[in-house]
Amino acid sequence: MQAETARHTVPGLSRAKKQSRLAGLVRELKRNRHYYILIGPYMLIFFTFTVIPVVVSMGLSFFYFNMLEFPRFVGWQNYTRLFLDDDIFIIALKNTFIFALITGPVSYLACFLFAWIINELSPKIRAFMTLVFYAPSISGNVFFIWLILFSGDSYGYLNGFLMRYGFILEPIQWLTNEKYILSIVIIVQLWLSLGTSFLAFIAGFQTIDKTLIEAGAVDGIKNRWQELWYITLPSMRPQLMFGAVMQITASFAVADISIALAGFPSVNYAAHTVVTHLMDYGTIRFEMGYASAIATVLFLIMIGTNLMTQKLLRKVGE
Amino acid sequence: MTYKLWSAFRIRRRLNRSFTVSFILFAFLGVFGCFSAIPLIYAVNNAFKPLDELFIFPPRIFVRNPTLDNFYDLVALMGNSWVPLSRYIANTLLITIIGTAGHILLASMAAYPLAKYRFPGSRTLFSIVVLSLMFSGHVTAIPNYMVMSWLGWINTHASIIVPSLAFSLGLFLMKQFMEQIPDALLEAAKIDGASEYRIYWSIVMPNVKPAWLTLMILQFPMLWGSDGGSFIYSENLKTLHYALGQISLGGIARAGVGAAVALILMIVPITLFVISQSNVIQTMASSGMKD
């Protein structure tokens, strides 16, 4: 190996150099071929169903395409229509940001806070409480239970309860009244939101080096808050960043719950989100170019928010 | 010695919360625990309620006279339908088992070189995977449909199974977990003449069992709850989740049966989590994102 490099560094023609670099790359590829074979199957599927579709979607957003005719290039028209002519998209965008600004931070803090408290419990109770908080997020469609709770007639549990104790006289149409839909979807979304990041935080708390906490106490840390800020949070920073990504992505992608609770489309688009708008154009109206523009906007919002949050979280505990 | 003990005691005292604060915190945990658990407890109880209790007002969370009628009704109802219930269950099991096992296999195969070696493209590929955690599948829904139809996979189970094999969170967690395997172990195997594939299969895989279970617990509920989406339209290929949707559309008359199916749907992922919890937490400890 050494002899070879020595030979190539002999001053010579640039062509020979280029060739040797290419040869070096080929050799490098050959040497690592086992690794490429191992990652191959995964990457093939990953690129086919995730990476290439993102690129295709961005490309399609500049075309008019209805799945039947050949795509026609329209430039920025889809985007100008989206932001200037589509009132419903603006409603969807506003709702999505309200959702994300509430469910994102609240669920993130809830994951952290509950993990923090649970960490103080004995292992058996800890395991049980973890299950209690995590179970909703893996129990599939059980959120239909909330439909019964918020049912619009006087047999709906919430209505029944409020009427029985005289808070209201007539049943409230919880799921068809614009005033309440958004809040209800947010509550149910929060109920479901203690997922992967919650587990990551619990794990993070369990792996904190105990000697660090003792050392901190010797160095003059006065209370739990200082301990949290100067020791716990910095030690957990990797988990915090991972959790942030999970929660942010989930909070911008609210759609299934909105559809299950408020219908599709919801009354006066009160629970319409960017994702349901995308579904509307993609699976009902077949305006694929326009839907791709919506998807691209969603992609940029998600990536942008995530990268920004990552930057912020790097400052924790400094 | 006494001094040491005393100082340790003082540190603990100083950092322990007062009783009131602990009480408030645990009360807080209790209240939200109830908020989290009651809908699930209610769903479980519903499945065992006879019809008169299902519609009782004011409603009760706990069942008084538990009965299995709802499950018998479910079997009877599905026995009469064009597609028997067993078919939906078989479809769901097929998708879930192949999808989960395949995902664990492919993700760990890809994670091993990414975690342990540097080779041209390895860092770029992994950054793309991390970046893909930052957006949801909705973004790619439209091109995905076109890819499926181009591959001729519309209305086959492959359209659900294959994309789920390359779920990026699984690769990410597996790779982070594999980084803990000591290099010395791998080098020892190499000196003994083991090929990369053998190292992967006989040394790396047995050491990452907790990560298998984690990938399972993340992948399983997703596939188990899959309703076929826009890819599957033949009734005999549809999933249990879809059948549940159809049953609950039956409204009041089907409320009991619907509750029974809901119980079946939710109990499987929850049981799996109970079994694998400690392993999952162990894996999550390495889930962090480095700067």
From TrEMBL, chain A:
List each coiled-coil range. Answer: none
What are the transmembrane regions?
Answer: 35-68, 88-116, 128-149, 180-203, 240-264, 288-308
Q: Which residues form the ABC transmembrane type-1 domain?
A: 93-309
Q: Name one Pfam family in it.
A: BPD_transp_1
The entry's localization annotation reads:
Cell membrane
The record, for PANTHER family, names: ABC TRANSPORTER PERMEASE PROTEIN (PTHR30193), INNER MEMBRANE ABC TRANSPORTER PERMEASE PROTEIN YCJO (PTHR30193:SF37)
What the record says about family reads:
Belongs to the binding-protein-dependent transport system permease family.
Query: Key word Endoplasmic reticulum present in the record?
Result: no
This protein's source sits in the domain of life called Bacteria
List the protein's name. Permease component of ABC-type sugar transporter
Instruction: Extract the CDD domains matched here.
Output: TM_PBP2
Q: List keywords of the entry alphabetically.
A: Cell membrane, Membrane, Sugar transport, Transmembrane, Transmembrane helix, Transport
Q: How does it sit in the membrane?
A: Multi-pass membrane protein
Provide one Gene Ontology biological process annotation: transmembrane transport
Listed under GO cellular component are: plasma membrane
TrEMBL record, chain B:
Q: Does the keyword Disulfide bond apply?
A: no
Q: Name one Pfam family in it.
A: BPD_transp_1
What is the recorded membrane topology of this protein? Multi-pass membrane protein
Would you say which domain of life the source belongs to? Bacteria
ABC transmembrane type-1 domain: from which residue to which, for each copy?
A: 89-276
Give the family from UniProt.
Belongs to the binding-protein-dependent transport system permease family.
Q: What is this protein called?
A: Binding-protein-dependent transport systems inner membrane component
The organism named in the record is Thermobacillus xylanilyticus
